[in-house]
Amino acid sequence: MTCETSFFMLSKSKKPEVVISKATTPKECFIKGIKQLGGITDYISEGDHVFIKFNLNLPGGFPVNTNFDVLETLVILCKEAGADKISIGSFPKRGIPIKIISDLLNLEENFKMLGAELMFLDNSENFENKDLNQDNLKKIKYESLTRIQINENEVFIPNIILNSNKFISVNQINVNPLFKLNLSIINSFSNIPPI
66 and 151 share a domain? Predict the structure, then answer.
């Protein structure tokens, strides 16, 4: 029907740093773009721990969330390139816990079947544990984050991201069905807790 466009900025070499690919589906765009950049093995090595950051705003599906066909393809390509561990996650917007979104969309099980682990960056997998009180939850939260100073600002970055060998941010610029533009710049903000 219409062509999708993807942008990739990855390369450190003399190969292309930006690729614009067009295809009929986001998955085809992604595969074509990665090939034009030299292939996934230019970026993922045997034994890597890869963290994949994706958009997880609401349980509304694509284009609100990252296209799941693209995520599935990326996980498969990372596995084929020899990645030892693949973690995938995001902080959701609007305060909806990741666990609730995951349960609604069956994300945890689907990613597990692909060989990736959904990370609950908001620690929401612990929210229903009756043995944990608010102090325990707060302790878990701060033990899962590292405080980083960037210029004059302090931010908390999840340890899972800092401990990964490779970080892939699946940026997505799209127009949702009501013609509201969703720019991928918000993608970088959801690497850190929204509060």
Answer: yes
Radius of gyration (Cα) for the chain, nearest Å?
17
- The pTM score is 0.79
- Determine which of 5-14, 38-47, 62-71 has the lowest per-residue pLDDT on average: 5-14
Tens digit of each residue's pLDDT (9 = 90 or more) over 16-43:
677 778 888 888 888 988 888 889 998 8
Same domain, 91 and 174: yes
Which residues are CB-neighbours of 90 under 8 A, at least 6 positions away? Answer: 53, 54, 55, 56, 98, 121, 190
131: domain range? Answer: 45-189
Assign residue 35 a region (left: φ > 0; alpha: ψ between -120 and 50; beta: otherwise).
alpha
| Residue 62: other Cβ atoms inside 10 A | 15
DSSP state of 94: G
Identify whether the C-beta of residue 62 lies closer than 8 Å to the C-beta of residue 83. Answer: no
